[in-house]
Each structure stands twice: as structure tokens, then as C-alpha cells.
């Protein structure tokens, strides 16, 4: 894997595309990181997440947001699982999980040579994957019916 400053689950490029103004609001951070608004405000109040106040609104620079996501401060407030836990959750081998992460086919956070999976992201990813499989099966079933 790459250096401990790299976080392919939330890259600087992804944040720049998602927040073209160069900053995110509290609500945007809440949705991105899947935490409560109160958690984001607590991070700001405790100076764990750096921000600037514009009127009544806080703005979080995407560089500061990226640094925060890569820090262990963020991981302490989020429920995540290890590669081994992920393999058990998906009912596949650890090597299969490593292949999926190497190919960037599933959401994850990388920090200090450790791949971590945010449980909420993984559950959403698994549900989306299952929906797509079911759609493909239904399309194949209708093709078979049309040929009959």
C-alpha cells in the first residue's frame, strides 16, 4: 500500500470534486463522514477539526478536512472494522477483501499500513451490490423468458 498520508477512501481529489468551493459546511461533513451534526460541532469546539466561521456558519477547508480524516482523531469517533472482520462480514477470504481494496472497488480508509472499513459505508456498499446483482438476475430472467 501507499504512505500513511494516503487515504484512498477519501482522497484530496474526491474532496475537491465534492466541494468545489474549497470548503465544506458542518452539514456536508456530517453527511460525508456519517456522524451527527453535534459530533462535528464537538470536533470544531475542541479544535480537533479546524474551521473558519463565516457569519453563523462554520466552513471547513478541504485540506483541513482531509488531514482530519487521515488522523486517528477521526477514527476514534467512528465505528470501523478490520480486514479480517470485513472478510467475515462479507463471507469471503481475507485475500478477496485485499483484492477489492487494492482495486479500489470498495470504500475504505487507509492509515499507518492498516486498512479500515467504516461499517456504515460497507453496509451501504453491500446493499448496493446486492441490488445490482438482483437487477442483473431479473434482466437475465426476462431475456430467457423472451427467448422462450
Share in helix? 55-70%
Structural class: alpha+beta
Instruction: Count all strands and give the number.
Output: 6
Radius of gyration: 19 Å
| Sequence of strands across the biggest β-sheet | 1-3-2
Q: Which whole number gives the mean pLDDT?
A: 79
β-sheet strand percentage: 5-15%
Task: Describe the protein's architecture and organization.
- The chain has 148 residues and is of the alpha+beta class.
- The chain folds into 2 domains: 1-78, Multidrug-efflux Transporter Regulator, Chain: A, Domain 2, CATH 1.10.1660; 79-148, Arc Repressor Mutant, subunit A (Orthogonal Bundle), CATH 1.10.10.
- The protein has helices at residues 12-18, 26-33, 37-45, 62-70, 72-75, 83-90, 94-102, 119-147, and strands spanning 23-25, 52-54, 57-61, 80-81, 109-111, 114-118.
- The strands form 2 sheets. The protein has a 3-stranded antiparallel sheet with strand order 1-3-2. A 3-stranded antiparallel sheet has the order 4-6-5.
- α2 (26-33) crosses α3 and α6 crosses α7.
- The longest helix has 29 residues, at 119-147.
- The radius of gyration is 19 Å and the shape is elongated.
- The N and C termini lie far apart (50 Å).
